[in-house]
Amino acid sequence: MKIGYNERVEVNTHFLITWHDGNTRLCGDFRALNNYTKGDRYPIPRICHTLEKLAKAKYITEMDCMKGSHQNGVKPNSMKFLGFICHMGIYEYTRMPFGTKNAPAHFQRMMDTIFEEEILEG
Questions:
Q1: N or C: which end of the chain has fewer CB within 10 A?
Q2: Domain-by-domain residue ranges, the chain?
């Protein structure tokens, strides 16, 4: 997760989740922001269509897109809405956090762009 310091941001509730292995994850509650966010209607492919294409594939590989949402940057004019407070000050995300309304659409758009040639070839 990338963050930047800023004193003029909208603050969202955040809390730490402890995993079974002892690691922690910062989780944001973006429900209030999501209520005011215009939805991105970018299509997410249906699994049945994806499996149909895979059935014809010569090679199949597996990729782990761990923390995929964090691979997308946030536009500078949107960062101010992604703030949170901690003991060190007020911060904002510079990468797309999990839980924002349009994160799945942005991630899918990124994947479609990266794999455009493979998708078109079927």
A1: C
A2: 3-121
